[in-house]
Amino acid sequence: MAKTILITGATAGFGKACAEYFAEQGWQLILTGRRTGRLEQLKEQLGDAVQQIITLDVRDRDQVFEKLGSLSNIDVLLNNAGLALGLEPSWEVDINDWETMVDTNIKGLMYCIRAVLPAMVTRNSGHVINIGSTAGSWPYPGGNVYGGTKAFVQQLSRNLRADLLGSKVRVTNLAPGMAESEFSNVRFKGDDAAADKVYAGADPLIPEDIAEIVYWIANRPAHININAIEVMPVDQAWGPLAVHRVKG
Ligand code: NDP
Ligand code: 8X3
Fold this sequence. Notes:
This protein is an alpha/beta fold and 248 residues long. It has one domain: Rossmann fold. 43% of the residues lie in helices and 15% in strands. The protein contains eight helices and seven strands, in the order βαβαβαβαβαβαααβ. It has helices at residues 13-24, 36-46, 61-68, 95-123, 144-164, 183-187, 192-199, 207-218; strands spanning 4-7, 28-33, 50-55, 76-79, 127-131, 170-176, 228-231. The chain has a seven-stranded parallel sheet, sandwiched between helices. α1 (13-24) crosses α8. The radius of gyration is 18 Å and the shape is globular. The chain starts with a strand and ends in a 17-residue tail after the last strand. Bound molecules: NADPH dihydro-nicotinamide-adenine-dinucleotide phosphate (NDP) and 2-hydroxyethylsulfonic acid. NADPH dihydro-nicotinamide-adenine-dinucleotide phosphate (NDP) binds at residues 8-9, 11-15, 33-35, 56-59, 80-83, 104, 108, 131, 133, 176, 178-179, 181-183, 186.
């Protein structure tokens, strides 16, 4: 029987690429996101593979529980919906941006897990794949709360494993580095020139790379849990620790 993946944030980037890749491999899809038009387009594009589209803002707790809480057939929950907003230093940041990132990347992810996990535990089968980020482990100027939200995703993923020991339910944190999607257009609030600069002259990851990795994670033998994967483009690595020096 075909397996079913529920993807949050399926309307763009990694989520859309995962929808396309899993559909090609014969999986059934439940696709969610705020932009209904894009979900409808995907349904048209992917046909019978799409079991259901659900317009959903993961920040809306009642909506998440109402729309996802009754789904009992999810083999993989891909918690992908998320965003970064701004790259300003902490003392200049718009506090609303910080709140939106916390509400989406932390609280939205929490709601989806809490809504979907009980049925997985009852069935003693299922897999929660969380999209973290290299920003959850490695700081950079302007990463402030975005990196904090992804550190939360990393640690919650580990703690879920601790809770789930004794069940067959699996949990993975997949932490990508720089990948070209709508991510930077969102981060820079529609400033496409600023977004393009992030990738200029480099060869970033692309959403299809992430889709292949998610598929690999989801298709390991049942006794294997991939705890975490960190992946960067070859053109990205760590810098040295920064030192501020007084001149003169
Ligand atoms: P995109 O901006 O291309 O896609 C983000 C997706 O998240 C969209 O489908 C969007 O759908 C959805 N989304 C955002 N906010 C909400 C919300 N409140 N409710 C429901 N869905 C929402 O970015 P990526 O594909 O690059 O990002 C996907 C994930 O990967 C994010 O969690 C991001 O933090 C993470 N990531 C990205 C990296 C990168 O360099 N691109 C690297 C590491 C991690 P809609 O607007 O229709 O709701
Ligand atoms: C996205 C990667 O380095 O832009 O999570 O924060 S980075």
